[in-house]
Task: structure prediction
Amino acid sequence: MSDGRLTEEHLEQFSRDGFLVLEGFSSPEEVAQLKARGEELVEAFDAENVSIFSTRRQESTTDRYFLDSASSVSCFFEEKAFDSEGKLVADKTRAINKIGHAMHDLDPVFRRWSRSPKVAAVMESLGFQRPLPVQSMLIFKQPYVGGEVVPHQDSSFIATDPLSCVGIWLALEDAMRSNGCLWALPGSHTKGVHRRFLRAPDGSVTFDADAPQLDDSGFVPVEVKAGSLVLLHGANVHRSSENSSPLSRHAYSMHIVEGAPGYAWQPDNWLQRRADVPFEPLYDHSSGSGSSSKRAPAFVHAAAACRAAAPSAVAPAAVGRPAAAGARPY
Ligand SMILES: O=C(O)CCC(=O)C(=O)O
Result:
């Protein structure tokens, strides 16, 4: 079983491709605990009261629920789970798309895994001085109804200045092409962050530009066994397809930024924590007592990617596009 420390070869691969697979990162027991806890959370969720998820009818309530999920453990449904009246048409165990976004802080079982020495060792290897997990999601790719996740870059949604996001994605079940595994575009992290998902002071969210046209043939499938960890550079473009198979494909994903001095969390990120639920670092070596590697941190974004602190770089005509119904960060 991995202790989380990355080899030179791992780091070279991550720098070259913008993603990396660590097979067998978590034991079958660890995976089983996370899955079981996910099932308990779904079981405890009151699905009788789901009218708030009918996005077309009650957009402001839905948006409030979404924004508040930055500081809570909240359930989100598959779009296909509702009829035209906004009523849930599937059993909740088959209708929930994900739970997020503060599981790594608020849920004891997910917190234990998220803050394990092994996860901290990965972040240390990537060069983080003060890694701040800011977002976590238990992602359910349900049999037959599990939806597509369109191509995106995590740094579009999660920005520091300068950019520093890294995603870690743990397969809780085997993820194959047939049940909607991740697909990643190798090298895409060197080409810049295409757009940002911005939160206005009134709480509305917009993309600041259209999604770029991408050559679909460049994506490679990231097929992994349960327990494997996939690391994703924040500027890597990745996606996943619908799950039209009878097998579910569940995963736990966490997004981490550098919280050392010199890195600023952006006030126009959609994700803003309540004051009583502050971000908590995995460790803090920023005062100088930690490792002093000469290597540039692996999470560094190409200069062209650093749009976080440059509002003037956002073409005025592009600002203010409403997020498409159902568009949610991943
Ligand atoms: O699990 C998926 O299908 C998508 C996950 C993802 O895009 C992410 O964790 O950044």
